[in-house]
Sequence to fold (109 residues):
Amino acid sequence: MLWLDLSAWCFGGFLLANAVPHAVSGMMGRPFQTPFASPPGRGLSSAPVNVVWGFANIVAGAALVCHVGHFTFTNIEDSAVFLLGAFVSALFMARHFGRLHGGDRPDRP
Fold:
């Protein structure tokens, strides 16, 4: 197993996890932060921009997982590195977006 394959699968997991809030917010018709907003990553982008950004992350993440090396979920190492990427992405998003939406302070309603 090449370390490049493992890196691609980890980053694929990162991108697939990142796709979730963007695609869901966009499909719900809600604005959400994207790299294209002003300021980047903090300002809000429209719902259609979020749908496009979410699906771009899905395409890129799926390409990395499905077309680099021979990924299989039944292989513990493959699954672990993919899930590590998704977990790191989820933690990053929780901290970043939590600051913007009040999720970093559980005492707030």
Notes: The beta strands are 32-33, 44-45. The mean pLDDT is 90.
